[in-house]
Design goal:
GO terms for molecular function: ATP binding; DNA ligase (ATP) activity. With 354 residues, the chain is an alpha+beta fold. Helices cover 20% and strands 31% of the residues. It is elongated, with a radius of gyration of 22 Å. About 2% of the residues have low confidence.
């Protein structure tokens, strides 16, 4: 491979904001695997955000790159899977599998698509120092004849339209809006864009904790919600506390600590059969490897209000944020019924620029 921009390249990142800022180039925020795509003739590499290649996990995307992208180019985009008219992040996670036969089977039954949103190089020229708006126009020209499963994301300088995307596209599984300064050069690894994501709150049962890796202070709170059968399901964690707060929380929760998991709603957390039957903490994952997933059980008597952006199936997609304790709430009242369901939106319309 001999390109003007060579792998690995760390993707340009975004910092969070509460509102969509004016005077920017706006795009929908896709919920998939970020990928820097390198093509030099038949040679194709899909680079992940961490720098590790994704190429072997998405053979159908590699084939689509060869069919639809210019012979020599580097672009920034997102690998996504659509299922049931929505983006399906769980289906993406299933693709990270060591068995090539499994990967190729899933490529047929749950094929992925590539959504392009930036162009870093074309032919023998690097576009890294080219302003964002010019790179966008070059991307549109370069992929003018591209067809599914390769898509060019929608983009607009219209703030009002960006607000509509933010309100409507969540129903198709997208998770917000990205705003880019029009004169921005491509800056690998730098948080120079802006992302605006949905935030909601939920009251959850605190049923366990994990100590922090640095010592005997709180690392994260383990959160639970009751399902329709009254069973407490593990829905995610609440973390990102200042160190002083971690120490105080460890002391505050000490009276709730149980000597063992016996009698706890998640007492079978180490059982593969129990993991398959419900959501429990510490489940096996190809992403966690040998990471210690043990936890400290707490009597499920306290309720916390947390902020979250959206759900991935029956759990929080990202780490939830602590808002306040809710001593007025009974743990048994913390159910899935409180969660807001976004209005459905046709993903096909989003992919087609509608």
């Amino acid at each position: 491979m001999d390109l003007p921009v060579m792998p690995p390249v760390a993707p340009m990142l975004a910092k969070s904001a509460a509102r969509v800022p004016p005077g920017m180039l706006y795009e929908p925020k896709w919920d998939g695997f970020r990928a820097i795509v390198f093509r030099d003739g038949d040679e194709v590499e899909l680079g992940s955000r961490s720098g590790k290649p994704l190429t072997r996990y998405f053979p159908e995307v590699v084939a689509a790159v060869r069919e639809h992208l210019p012979p020599r180019c580097v672009l920034d985009g997102e690998i996504v899977i659509a299922r049931g008219g929505r983006l399906d992040f769980d289906a993406l996670l299933e693709r990270i599998h060591p068995a090539d036969s499994r990967v190729r089977h899933l490529a047929e039954v749950t094929p992925a698509s590539l959504v392009a949103f930036d162009l870093l190089a074309l032919g023998g020229s690097s576009l890294m120092d080219t302003p964002q708006l010019e790179r966008r126009r070059a991307l549109e020209r370069a992929l003018h004849d591209a067809a599914a499963p390769v898509h060019v994301t929608s983009a607009s300088e219209d703030l009002e339209l960006a607000q509509e995307w933010f309100e409507q596209f969540e129903g198709a599984g997208l998770d917000g809006v990205v705003a880019k300064p029009p004169d921005l050069p491509y800056q690998p690894g730098a948080r120079v864009m802006v992302k605006v994501k949905h935030e909601r709150t939920a009251d959850c049962v605190v049923a366990g904790l994990r100590p922090h890796k640095s010592g005997p202070v709180l690392g994260s709170l383990l959160l639970g919600l009751h399902d329709a059968n009254g069973r407490l399901q593990h829905v995610g964690v609440c973390a990102s506390f200042p160190m002083a707060r971690r120490k105080a929380l460890m002391e505050e929760l000490a009276p709730l600590r149980m000597e063992s998991v016996a009698g706890h709603p998640w007492q079978d957390w180490a059982s593969e059969e129990a993991q398959a039957a419900g959501r429990l903490p510490g489940g096996p994952s190809r992403w966690t490897g040998k990471k210690d997933l043990s936890w400290v059980p707490l009597r499920p008597e306290r309720v916390v209000e947390v902020a979250y952006d959206h759900m991935q199936g029956d759990r929080f997609r990202h780490t939830a944020q602590f808002r306040r304790w809710r001593p007025d709430r009974d743990p048994s009242s913390c159910t899935y019924a409180q969660l807001e369901e976004p209005v459905r939106y046709d993903l096909a319309r989003v992919l087609s620029g509608g």
